[in-house]
Design a protein that fits this description.
Blueprint: E1 11-13, E2 16-22, E3 28-34, E4 39-43, H1 50-60, E5 63-68, H2 80-87, E6 90-92, E7 111-114, E8 117-123, E9 132-136, E10 139-143, E11 146-147, E12 150-151, H3 161-174, E13 180-183, E14 193-194, H4 195-201, H5 210-218, H6 228-237, E15 244-245, H7 247-255, E16 261-264, H8 268-273, E17 274-275, E18 280-281, H9 291-296, E19 301-304, H10 309-320, E20 326-329, H11 332-338, E21 344-345, H12 352-373, H13 379-395, H14 399-405, H15 440-444
Parallel strand pairs: 4-5, 5-6, 10-13, 15-20, 16-18, 16-19, 19-20
Antiparallel strand pairs: 1-2, 2-3, 3-4, 7-8, 8-9, 9-10, 11-12, 13-14, 17-21
Helix pairs in contact: 1-2, 3-5, 7-11, 12-13, 12-14
The protein binds fe (ii) ion.
């Protein structure tokens, strides 16, 4: 199990243990396990959380019985299919989801057994028609129906604000105030709330009229989540993001309306000379320290270098850090351009490959000259460089290239990992997803324009 962990503090719910997992983009997933039988279920596993969740299941000696998606996620790739493949477990979703690979479609009131415990499923449409929530041992896993201080958006995937009002109302009427609330999104680091707290402080729950709730929830919808169409295809059809994709496919994804994130791992000099517009620059030697910024980029994440070798190395590094949804662009930027992809060009400097050739050649010449005119031992330098080049050719790993990539002249002028031409390494703003709700102060005065609920 890697030392990378998104797990939060485990909670005890009677005979059950609940482990929340917090993705840096704000998505929340959960493992819920019955301690006596060691039976467990996973809920809303983001693709990036799969390794962490699988590691926890293995470390605890749990048997994964169910892998649940509370609804069709539109803002992130679901890891349900991959987690079920890794750990076993029956895929669960509402029948209206129609996800490939899902074999259990509980109806409203259905129960999922975890050893001697039971988890009750409620159909709670509104955010999406296929939305379910889970209730067990005084806890509500609310998905994107009810958030802490907010409610979900309803402006895509057949969402219905009136249905959301009804679903939340039914849950509040049936479940006691002390019920713990665990939502599928939170952007403020909060792990839980209670229904009683939400009744007192959530401004959306202060709206008693259905028509007013609908009017305010549907006014001025925020932008759709980035890459929504591709994410829906992945989440519905269960298509894995491939380890590499052809350059022509990358061009199609990028130029069909920014349907993918491009992570460029070349040096700053190479990036400045030419790059895919809108791409994010994360040099290979900084990939590990910038993993969260890559994780913040919307999936599918296309990893690009000059020919594909450094991108493959970057993917391996990121894979160990549980950054999923990565595809290496086969053939790199050269193939991308050959396939008709558009690029932005800037100041051209000596390429890294030419720098390696110049440096290696210079060392060989220096070794020979010093060996002839100073001391024969210097001839070993030429031999050492030659051996290094052979090693680089055989293994495709070039230490001299990596060393040169760290040199100041190879760094982007705008700084390490700096964005360019529309790209950014900063975390994707949560506006497209669950953005919470107006602060309590806004409640008394009505909901201010521009304050929107969320739920991707
Ligand atoms: Fe959602």
């Amino acid at each position: 199990m890697s030392d990378v962990s998104f797990a939060r503090e485990a909670r005890t719910l009677g005979p059950l243990t609940l482990v929340p997992f917090a993705h840096p983009q704000g998505c929340r997933g959960y493992l819920l396990a019955d301690r006596s039988s060691r039976s467990a279920m996973a809920v809303d596993a983001h693709l990036d959380l799969v390794e962490d969740m699988a590691g926890r299941v293995g470390a605890e000696g749990w048997t994964l019985m169910y892998v649940v998606d509370t609804h069709t996620h539109a803002d992130h790739p679901s890891g349900a299919g991959r987690l079920a493949a890794r750990c076993g477990g029956t895929r669960v979703a509402h029948r209206k989801a129609g996800h490939a690979g899902v074999t259990l479609n509980p109806e409203h009131g259905g129960r999922l057994a975890l050893g001697g415990s039971e988890v009750t499923v409620y159909h709670a449409p509104g955010h999406t028609p296929d939305h379910i929530v889970l209730v067990a041992e005084g806890a509500l896993l609310s998905g994107d129906t009810l958030l802490i201080g907010g409610v979900a958006r309803t402006d895509f995937l057949g969402g219905d604000a009136g249905q959301l009002f009804d679903s939340i109302g039914a849950l509040l009427a049936e479940l006691p105030a002390e019920t713990l609330l665990f939502p599928a999104h939170d952007y403020q680091g909060r792990d839980s709330s209670t229904l009683g707290n939400e009744k007192r402080s959530n401004p959306w729950l202060a709206i008693s009229e259905r028509s007013e709730f609908v009017a305010k929830l549907t006014a001025n919808p925020p932008p759709r989540p980035a890459n929504m169409d591709d994410l829906l295809r992945l989440n519905r059809e269960g298509v894995e993001i491939p380890a590499s994709i052809a350059a022509a496919e990358a061009v199609r994804l990028v130029e069909a309306g920014g349907a993918a994130s491009v992570i460029d791992v070349r040096t700053g000099a190479e990036f400045e000379a030419e790059h895919v517009p809108g791409s994010r620059h994360v040099p290979l030697d900084q990939v590990e320290s910038h993993a969260d910024q890559v994780r913040a980029a919307a999936a599918p994440r296309l990893v690009l270098c000059r020919t594909g070798n450094r991108a493959a190395q970057a993917r391996l590094i990121l894979d160990k850090l549980h950054v999923g949804g990565l595809s290496v662009v086969a053939g790199g930027l050269e193939a991308y351009v050959a396939a008709g992809g558009k690029t932005a060009k800037g100041k051209t400097r000596v390429s890294l490959e030419r720098q390696v050739r110049i440096a290696a050649g210079s060392l060989v010449v220096a070794g020979v000259l010093l060996g002839v005119f100073v001391h024969a031992a210097f001839l070993a330098l030429a031999g050492l460089v030659g051996a290094g080049l052979v090693f680089a050719g055989v293994t495709d790993w070039c230490g001299l290239g990596l060393l040169l990539a760290r040199m100041p002249w190879n760094r982007a002028k705008s700084g390490a990992g700096a964005p360019a031409a529309g790209g950014t390494c900063a975390a994707t703003p949560p506006a497209a997803c669950a953005a919470g709700a107006p602060p309590p102060a806004a409640c008394a005065a009505g909901l201010p324009p521009g304050k929107k609920p969320g739920g991707g």
